[in-house]
Amino acid sequence: MILFLIISQIKGLYVDDVFLEEDGFINLSKAKVVAINGLDGYTIPKL
Q1: What is the C-alpha separation between 10 and 15, in angstroms, rounded?
Q2: What total number of domains does the chain contain?
Q3: Which domain holds residue 26?
Q4: Does any domain span residue 3?
Q5: DSSP secondary structure string, the chain?
Q6: Does the pLDDT of residue 38 top 80, yes or no?
Q7: Residue 41 confidence (pLDDT) above 90
């Protein structure tokens, strides 16, 4: 059995100001992104 452990770090995050709320929250609904839900499921996040 082969196992891999990957450790990483986010060095930068670029978000269009249109998707940022006043409190700094990134509004995923406005961005119309698709999120992964488990291993093989996808969803469209809505508030």
Answers
A1: 14
A2: 1
A3: 15-47
A4: no
A5: ----------------GGGB-TTS-B-HHHHT--EEETTTEEE----
A6: no
A7: no
Average pLDDT over residues 17-33: 88
Tell me, yes or no, whether 22 lies in a domain.
yes
Closest-CA residue to 28 (of 44, 40, 9, 5): 44
State both tokens at 44: 């469209």
CA-based nearest residue to 30, from 18, 22, 42: 18
- The predicted model gives 12-22 an average pLDDT of 92
Q: What is the mean pLDDT of residues 7-21?
A: 92
Nearest Cα to 30, choosing from 42, 43, 47? 47
Cα–Cα dist 47/27, whole Å: 9
* Single pTM value for the model: 0.52
